[in-house]
Write a structure and sequence with these properties.
With about 300 residues, this protein is α/β, with parallel strands linked by helices. It has 2 domains: about 5-175, Rossmann fold (3-Layer(aba) Sandwich); about 190-295, K homology (KH) domain (GMP Synthetase, Chain A, domain 3, 2-Layer Sandwich). About 35% of the residues lie in helices and about 25% in strands. It has helices spanning about 20-25, 70-85, 100-115, 130-140, 160-170, 190-205, 240-250, 255-270, 290-295, and strands at about 5-15, 45-50, 55-60, 90-95, 120-125, 150, 170-175, 215-225, 230-240, 275-285. Strands 1, 2, 3, 4, 5, 6 and 7 form a 7-stranded mixed sheet that branches. It has a 3-stranded mixed sheet with strand order 8-9-10. The longest helix has 18 residues, at about 255-270. The two termini are about 25 Å apart.
């Protein structure tokens, strides 16, 4: 195809600025975990968007934050590594900031070093006045030559078309890297694990969620008694402390049941099949500093 464009787009920003919501809105379906809590994305998740004249591969990266564990260091390293590898960068900041904070300044310096075409996304504009948005635009304009500055609200799904047009303008001609049938490079096990973790993140108390990871022990397709296809999934939720285990299970197992029910409902939509989901909870103390476990969250690109 003549003038067909393709390329990799890294979505980068501090924790909880709305990167995953923007990715899901652009992709038109849920690819990344979306929770109103920081440090949700732990590794790079790709969404593949096929358009009439382009294929855009988006990478949602972990939010840049001050690390307090080996897991935190790995998450930051993964995010930093995505900048020089990208053809285009979407730099997401919050409209609620009146100036460029330390975290955003650090990201900006890395973007300057990489010298990649960058689109600034000012998210959550529904929370501030027009004057505040204009002031922030001027502040960032003075710092870097952005290809475009787009104020948006991920919640309201505004401006997705404009963002895609600006990305296409800055891509070079190239082949489709993935089949047009594909929309993510995540495996079914990845999707199952992330779906369970997302439900746990949404339902659990503040101190518990980021001390968990989910391992899929078994994922097998079979038939029900009525001869309908069904996915049998068995997963373990690992946590840091016995007290956390009690919270995850809940009184009479009610919390674990809720996590399982919500995860199963989402997975049935995602897999378009019935799902039989079994969950267990185990303690693995200080796993966030365990090299063997943390390396699972390293980017392999």
């Amino acid at each position: 195809m003549e003038n067909f464009k393709s390329g990799f787009v890294a979505i980068i920003g501090r924790t909880n600025v709305g990167k995953s919501s923007i990715l899901n809105n652009i992709a038109g379906q849920k690819i990344a975990v979306v929770v109103n809590k920081p440090q949700t994305t732990r590794s790079t998740i790709k969404a593949i968007l096929n358009r009439p004249n382009s294929q855009i591969i988006f990478t949602d990266t972990p939010g840049i934050h001050k690390p307090k564990s080996k897991l935190g260091i790995t998450m930051n390293d993964t995010a930093w590594a995505s900048i020089p590898d990208a053809d285009v960068i979407l730099f997401v900041v919050e409209a609620t900031s009146s100036e460029i904070g330390k975290g955003d300044q650090m990201i900006l310096e890395k973007i300057k070093e990489a010298n990649r075409p960058t689109i600034l996304i000012i998210n959550k504009i529904d929370l501030v006045t027009k004057e505040q948005i204009l002031n922030l635009i001027e502040t960032y304009k003075d710092q870097y030559h952005f290809k475009a500055i787009i104020p948006t609200s991920a919640i309201k799904k505004q401006e997705v078309g404009i963002i895609l047009e600006e990305i296409e303008k800055n891509l070079k001609e190239g082949p489709a890297y993935y089949s047009t049938e594909e929309y993510t490079d995540q495996t079914l096990r990845d999707i199952a694990s992330e779906t369970i973790r997302e439900k746990a993140l949404k339902l659990l108390q503040e101190e518990v969620p980021h001390g968990i990871f989910v391992e899929i022990e078994k994922m097998k397709k079979s038939k029900t008694r009525e001869n309908e296809p069904i996915f049998n999934i068995e997963a373990t939720i690992y946590c840091l402390k016995n007290s956390h285990k009690g919270i995850i299970i809940g009184k009479n197992g009610q919390m674990l049941k809720r996590i399982g029910t919500y995860a199963r409902e989402d997975l049935e939509k995602e897999l378009e099949e019935k799902v039989n989901l079994k969950l267990w909870v185990k303690v693995k103390e200080d796993w966030i500093n365990n090299d063997q476990i943390v390396k699972k969250f390293k980017t392999t690109d």
